[in-house]
Design the sequence.
């Protein structure tokens, strides 16, 4: 089973996990661990990282004490050609989704960084290297946002103009079409389009989708547990494969 989820802290994330069988472990790729090189978090007890500012105090008090899995981390490091590290932990791109999927924090979690030096095709291929883990009951969870222009969203929130811009609507629809038809060239090209540049001024919240797509295959069913827009231009679309 693969899933890609947005990072919003809403009750709608419960829909992503509806009917989801509890996995043996979760491998998480989050937009918020952006590195030069590939790293795999190998702590037996990864800390909860509050890597944000300006949010309510209650969010800083959240703890997600899921266990790690150093053995699985080492295996993933070898698969990806990366290094294991006790640094980092579970950032808010990981725990904000996991807390909704597995609120008891009883599933081992291994987080993987994204290498900023890789091309879009390189990120997709990294996901492909994780695909065989699914056959062993390991969930591949990719956490980003389908559109992520914070400057635009913040301006809309400040002015009260929460209308849906055409570029966001078009980009969201193009992603859905590429996923449904498994049009890999289209998916890889989307970020470089004018709509893609507006949807993702930086690629960190876009590349997790490529990892999840890479870990899926043509035999997978596709579900859209969450859809719609927040703050005008932020697409909350989430995808489940398998």
Sequence:
């Amino acid at each position: 089973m693969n899933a890609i989820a947005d990072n919003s802290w809403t009750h709608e994330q419960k829909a992503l996990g509806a009917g989801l069988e509890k996995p043996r472990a979760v491998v998480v790729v989050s937009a918020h661990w952006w590195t030069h090189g590939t790293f795999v978090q190998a702590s037996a007890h990864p800390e909860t990282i509050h890597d944000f500012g300006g949010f309510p105090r209650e969010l800083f008090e959240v703890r997600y004490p899921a266990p790690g899995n150093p053995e699985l981390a080492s295996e993933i490091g070898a698969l990806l050609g990366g290094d294991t590290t006790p640094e980092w932990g579970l950032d808010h791109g990981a725990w904000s989704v996991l807390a909704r999927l597995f609120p008891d924090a009883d599933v081992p979690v291994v987080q993987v960084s994204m290498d900023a030096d890789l091309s879009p095709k390189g990120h997709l291929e990294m996901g492909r290297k994780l695909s065989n883990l699914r056959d062993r009951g390991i969930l591949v969870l990719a956490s980003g946002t389908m559109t992520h222009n914070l400057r635009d969203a913040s301006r809309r929130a400040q002015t009260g103009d929460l209308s849906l811009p055409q570029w966001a609507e078009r980009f969201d629809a193009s992603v859905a079409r590429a996923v449904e038809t498994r049009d890999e060239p289209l998916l890889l090209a989307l970020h470089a389009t004018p709509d893609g540049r507006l949807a993702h001024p930086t690629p960190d919240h876009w590349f997790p989708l490529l990892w999840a797509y890479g870990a899926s295959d043509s035999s997978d069913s596709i579900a859209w547990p969450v859809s719609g827009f927040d703050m005008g231009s932020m697409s909350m679309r989430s995808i489940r494969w398998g």
